[in-house]
Amino acid sequence: MTSGWLLAAALTALMGPVCCLRVTGFKVPSIALIGSDVELDCSFSAARNAKLYSVKWYQNHEEFYRYMFSERTPVTAFTRPGINVDLARSNNSRVTLKSVNFNSSATFRCEVSADEPDFETVYRRANMTVIQVSEDGPLINGLRDQYELNEQLNVNCTSPSITPNIGTHQTKLSWQLNRQTMDGQTIQMQSADPSQTVINLRLILTERHFDPKTGLLRLNCSFTVGRPTAIYFNRSLELSAALMHPTTVLDPRPTQRSYKSKDSRSASYSSGGRRQFRLSLVTFLAVIPYALWTCCNPC
């Protein structure tokens, strides 16, 4: 056992260090919005004494970006349909694509190669689809302006359409009532447009569904594209409805309080002072004639 280990160590010493080149981080967004800028990341590691040769990026099978470690001008970008490299924001571990379009959709591959004597090459790849989301939606249908207690709320929400159709596994349409998620009471409906999703919300309205101060219920429909860890698009619509004939809704105007504030007490004190001053003035005016008569008619 010991002799085998010693033999392996001797062979390693004779052959030199093993490159151990690895791609340690790779990020290509699965979804990109048309017209947006996209960052493609490819980080790697190698043995301490290993010499790297190049990093190359491919769209499908066509090279569009190359970084040569030994060159004085290491970066070269190639023209491809749907590929517009932002050289100022690109390096040996990141490539930035400007204003992607439908032609940008492809399988992207990052290929890292070591220099001699190993010439080892490792790679990673992933798919990216460029989509366009329509301006209309999400749309809420069936919501009335007013409801009575114990009436049924029956509303539909329709998502925007997406080109091309990416299915429903990367999209989510959801209800919120007064900021509370209503997934448990949501029903998926069939849509005439396969690129759209329609969900229904149906429930009996009680007092707890209305805000006690305003008498309103707030209904929100939200549409997202992506996953919880990577949201590529998010848009929502919020509408409100009022409770008809409210009985427990508080008056939104400020209530009049029975106690007096500090300012009102000060005002009452000032008012009392003015009444006392008027009384003293009347007394003074009444005394003046008697004082003058006394001075003019001494005893």
From TrEMBL:
Superkingdom of origin: Eukaryota
InterPro entries on file: Ig-like_dom, Ig-like_dom_sf, Ig-like_fold, Ig_sub, Ig_V-set
Pfam families referenced in this protein's UniProt entry, alphabetically: V-set
Signal sequence bounds: 1-20
Gene3D superfamilies: Immunoglobulins (2.60.40.10)
Keywords (A to Z) from UniProt: Signal
Name of the protein in question: Putative Beat-Vb
Chain residue ranges for the region called Disordered: 249-271
